[in-house]
Amino acid sequence: MSVSHYRVHGQIAVIAMNHPPVNGLGLALRRALLDGLDRAEADPAVRAIVLIGTDKVFSAGADIHEFNSPLMRAEPTLHTLIDAIERGTKPVIAAIAGACMGGGLELALGCHFRIARADAQIALPEVKLGLLPGAGGTQRLPRAVGVETALNLIVSGATVPAQQLSQTALFDALVADDLASGALAFAEKILAEGIALKRIRDLPCTHPDAEAYFQFARHHVRSSAGAFPAPLKCIDAVAAAVTSPTFDAGLAAEREAFAYLVQTPESKALRHVFFAERAVTKIPDVPEDTPTRPIKTAAVIGAGTMGGGIAMTFANAGIPVSVLEIKAEALERGLATIRKNYESQVKKGKLGADALAARMALIQPTLDYAHIRDADIVIEAVFEDMDVKKAVFEKLDAVMKPGAILATNTSTLDVNRIAAFTTRPEDVVGTHFFSPANVMRLLEIVRGEKTAKDVLATVMKLAKTLKKLPVVAGVCDGFIGNRMIHRYSAEAMRMLLEGALPQQIDQAIERWGMAMGPFRMSDLAGNDVGWLIRKRHYAERPQMPRAVIADRLCERGRFGQKTGKGWYAYRTGDRTAYPDPEVEQLIVDARREAGIAPRRIDDGEIVERLIYALVNEGARILEEGIALRASDIDMVYLNGYGFPLHRGGPMFYADTVGLYTVARRMRAFARQPGADAAFWTPAPLLERLAAEGKTFN
Ligand code: 3H9
């Protein structure tokens, strides 16, 4: 299929981009556009050219896939194409509807005139990919809309409707209805009136107080840019538009910055995340057009922290939700906590008082299963114990209407066993929310052996309505996220025995970028949570090694922040983690009992051991088919475990280090005195990919 069409209407040539899904400006489209342009230039009957996209998209910009290949530099590049348009002798009119983003907007900025539908979506979102607009956007947009407006758009990557910029030189006219006819009429008009070609590059680019303004902007952005170099480079490039002696000098500065940014690991990570977020909802054997069940009402079993957070998630999406508890006091406590959470959002100005009332009205407390029988989905969030789950699911099976989805929020238990407590295992699915459920974006969707395809499709769609990022996981202990974190925590524990302290481990991995180190995280989540799981594991596998230090900590009631003591000590009303000599003594004792002579472990080794512990388990999860793709594992860690965005997720990070190096380091750890050699045996998939010089992603 042709990526663009060329048609002549009287004295006007129309070049229509038609390259689904988003008119990405890959090599094929660039060539087609330049061919069309050359043809129109050469045809004496043609006096003006209209460049148009589809109703949904003018162009979403450069084809992001090309950034990892030489195609991006193949002629005609986007620069060549834009330059050819701008220097052409016949007026070129960009006719814009839908998304006009990145290189798409830069293409339009190179045209002599632009008309748009008022709701066209305008953006230079390159910064979100760790880049800056690299085809003249930082030079032309300030000339079209003013330096400050342009800088705001470029640094934020925000999308605005064309209407918002209608008073600037960006648009010559807005068109109400039929864009194609409007464009032809506009072209006829400029020909009739003999209006000269306008080139944005010829406009001045000034700011009354440039130096102070850019200094202010840099100061403002520096604190929020974190590990990402792009936002500051965006400012430098826009500053170059003002300070460079010529337009071309500014353009050269922009090109240089783009060439630098495109090869940074931060940009590669963000590009990986862009595609990973879109891949995550694709389930190979569940086509996108699989019919779904309507979800108009929901119910949650359990009004504890998780149940309450899940109920809030539904209410926030406008879906009426019942919350069921066995005891009235527990129900009242749960509802009071929900109200308190909403009230604190009101205090912070994040929610209006009306909205609070509306959301509370959507949450119906009940003590009676009969009240929830007509809910379209019910999510169980009770105590993490198989017998308790059994009782709940038998009850749900008895009362819920046919076709209702029966979901469990279990974080580790076997969803197939839970499904088997019912006579309708095809309606059972895991929906593993992360705490606080109303805040965290991640939602692991656990697909049981018998989960029906339409149930899976329904919860994937529901996740979107609830503004969650769903990742499909197969059934295993801990699914994707917790199964991996278990290995990470075990390794952190192992390093305590070998000579490190909780604060050193936490600081090392936090400096590397994790939002929280393993010990601070455990103190926040509650050390008793892991203890409960460990006790179940000890019972199931009596020969398994004990986590002596962590167990003793819990035996002393040091459950974390909620008890004022955990791996650290806490003061009332203060979440700061203070190192505690009692914990250090506990560690020293455990080392002595184990006959381990402590050694100094440097921060680099701490980071490698923690992250590679995740990676090795991730490789097993991938090979077993528990995760559909490596990038799904990255999504879990980025959205549920505070993994640093600029590193792209554990599997992507391993790819950037190189799997050969990762496997080699694992073997080195296995050889260390007293090491758990089995733990550090590279997973077969990792070994294979490393040997073949391949990557996970
Ligand atoms: C750039 O322009 C650099 C230049 O300054 C300089 C160059 C020298 N490329 O999001 P959706 C795919 S950088 C390749 O689900 P929506 C996407 O992967 C670029 N593919 O749809 C998906 O594929 P699949 C700056 C792209 O309707 C499909 O299209 N531009 C691109 O929810 C549908 O996407 C941006 O950053 C692309 N540029 O939203 C804009 N864009 O079906 C990025 C999309 O296989 N794009 N795909 O999963 C967007 O923000 C949204 O896609 C958009 C549509 C709002 C356009």
Automatic annotation (TrEMBL):
Is Lipid metabolism one of the keywords? yes
Which intervals hold domain 3-hydroxyacyl-CoA dehydrogenase C-terminal?
478-570, 606-694
According to its UniProt record, which reaction does this protein catalyse? a (3S)-3-hydroxyacyl-CoA + NAD(+) = a 3-oxoacyl-CoA + NADH + H(+)
Q: Name one Pfam family in it.
A: 3HCDH
Sorted keywords for this record are: Fatty acid metabolism, Isomerase, Lipid degradation, Lipid metabolism, Lyase, Multifunctional enzyme, NAD, Oxidoreductase, Peroxisome
Q: Could you provide one GO biological process annotation from this protein's UniProt record?
A: fatty acid beta-oxidation
Cellular location of this protein?
Answer: Peroxisome
One example of the protein's molecular function in GO is: isomerase activity
Q: Does the keyword NAD apply?
A: yes
Pathway named in the protein's UniProt entry: Lipid metabolism; fatty acid beta-oxidation
Q: What is its main location?
A: other
Entry's CDD domains? crotonase-like
Q: Pinpoint the 3-hydroxyacyl-CoA dehydrogenase NAD binding domain residues.
A: 298-473
Give the record's family classification: In the N-terminal section; belongs to the enoyl-CoA hydratase/isomerase family.
> Could you identify this protein by its name?
3-hydroxyacyl-CoA dehydrogenase
**What is the organism of origin for this protein?**
Fontimonas thermophila
